[in-house]
Amino acid sequence: MSLLGLDIGSTGCKATIIDYNGGKQNSAYREYTLENPEPGLEELNPGKVWQAVQEVIKESINRYQGEEIMAISISSFGEAAVPIDAKGNILHNSMMYIDKRGEEEIQHLKQRIDEREVFNITGVSLHPMYTLGKLMWLKKHKPAIYKKTWKLLLYADFILYKLGGNPVINYSLAARTMAFDIINKTWSDQILQAADIDKDKLPQPVPSGTKAGKIDEKLARNLGLPQNVLLVAGGHDQPCAALGAGIIKSGIAVDGMGTVECITTALDKPVISDQMAKANLVCSPHVKDDMYVTYAFNFTGGSLLKWYRDNFGYKEKQLAQKQGKDVYDILIDKAVDYPTDIYILPHFAGSGTPYMDTNARGAIIGLTLETEKSEIIKAVLEGITYEMMVNLECLDRAGIEIEELRAVGGGAKSDYWLQLKANMMGKKIVSLNISEAGTAGVAMLAGTAAGIYDSLEDAVDRLVKPKQEFYPDEKQYQKYQDKFEVYKKIYPHVKKILNKD
């Protein structure tokens, strides 16, 4: 018995076949690029994504010799919506969360509904990154397309629909629209009326793990899949990764160390408070029914190390090619083994939580003529970690205590970085036997719906195992606590210096 998990990202998609014990059997990946019709506009072509999805399914199936696939489930990034007509035709490219459209509409919305009321209902703060502002823009500037729209689907549910599923949206993705009532698990009439958006254009919200039909027979033949594959509602990529890392109880969190670094922790009940709102922390339904999650993230996580590699790591890239090694391993191996006096503010793509400052800029402070590359490499890792420590403080002030972080993603492959995190954060860091937590999460949803697992708890018990544990060195921790106090002063001063208003 095997399962197929799809992960739809903003720049690429991946199909992974997993057996019922969680073993990765086969996978395939395709990239696609964002389109920029003009400065400030960032679009994703849904047709290209759908084509890439079909290609990765075909490729993974063509090279697969194992047991028959029983079910498919999908995780995806949030916010971006696909408008389709009643025949399933795509009507417009998706506006990405970084697209400037919707900013004016959100300002108008602020005049019609109280900002705190929006947070109380949706668990997110009023912001143009969410789907609602983009839909308001679409209705105002492209009324013919809006009128023709039958349903607006976010990507995991769009792909599920294209595979033959019902036009539904899982709770965790619905919460990324800024129009979903996270307590009553339904679309908010109050917010939709204020935004003047028609509720009947939105799909039916359902829990993650809901059976959403079976694959289209003709499509199954074309893709090389069995005729009776079950389609299962998946979820937003972050809570899917949390499930895949076994985050189904409070007190533990997953640290997704990817391009964007994101800490996701499970909550036994919704947390809607002044502290959450102040820190721009969301409260969203988990993919595990009757639980919630919150995210704390930094847009420039692993991408900061990539920036260093691309601009200053030419020799290391050559060495990696010659020796057949990962260039990041070579870079990190060169990092000094002591705390540096260099501070890097990792706001190279704006800031995530708690500031949510799209105009934020990065900074490197403390350089001298004696500074060496090995110190800057270490400072890059420290800067990324300091930023997540700011977020951990915000979570703690909101009453959300995290005792253990489970690391996944590309950065989790480095024992050096995980030990550094433990030393800086003063927390237990655990690496897992599962390298791709998001795929594991959707496999758990698919397998539970198909009856392979008795419950999500059963799936976690069977699939998620600790690989290695990292504990803080007390002396290093105390040194970093002093330096952390300095780090927290940098953002306000940089903002003041660069503020052009």
Write the layout of secondary structure elements.
Blueprint: E1 2-8, E2 12-19, E3 24-31, E4 43-44, H1 46-62, E5 69-76, E6 81-84, E7 94-95, H2 103-110, H3 115-122, H4 131-141, H5 143-148, E8 151-154, H6 155-162, E9 168-170, H7 171-174, E10 180-181, E11 186-187, H8 189-195, E12 204-206, E13 211-214, H9 217-223, E14 230-236, H10 237-244, E15 252-257, E16 261-267, H11 274-278, E17 284-285, E18 292-298, H12 302-312, H13 314-323, H14 327-333, E19 343-345, E20 363-365, H15 373-397, E21 404-408, H16 415-425, E22 428-432, H17 437-449, H18 456-463, E23 466-470, H19 474-487, H20 490-498
Parallel strand pairs: 1-5, 5-14, 9-12, 15-21, 21-22
Antiparallel strand pairs: 1-2, 2-3, 4-7, 6-8, 10-11, 13-14, 15-16, 16-18, 17-18, 19-20, 22-23
Give structural notes:
- The protein has 501 residues and is α+β, with helices and mostly antiparallel strands.
- The chain folds into 2 domains: 2-236, Nucleotidyltransferase, domain 5 (2-Layer Sandwich); 299-399 and 472-498, 2-Layer Sandwich (Nucleotidyltransferase, domain 5), CATH 3.30.420.40.
- It is built from 20 helices and 23 strands.
Query: Mean pLDDT, as a whole number?
Result: 94
Show unreliable segments.
none
User: Which strand-content bin applies to the residues?
Assistant: 15-25%
Report Rg: 22 Å
Major β-sheet, in short? Answer: 7 strands, mixed
* Number of E-state strands: 23
What is the structural class?
A: alpha+beta
Q: Can you identify the CATH superfamily of the largest domain?
A: ATPase, nucleotide binding domain
How far the N terminus sits from the C terminus, by CA atoms, comes to 60 Å
Report the CATH topology name of the largest domain: Nucleotidyltransferase, domain 5
Question: Count of helical segments?
Answer: 20
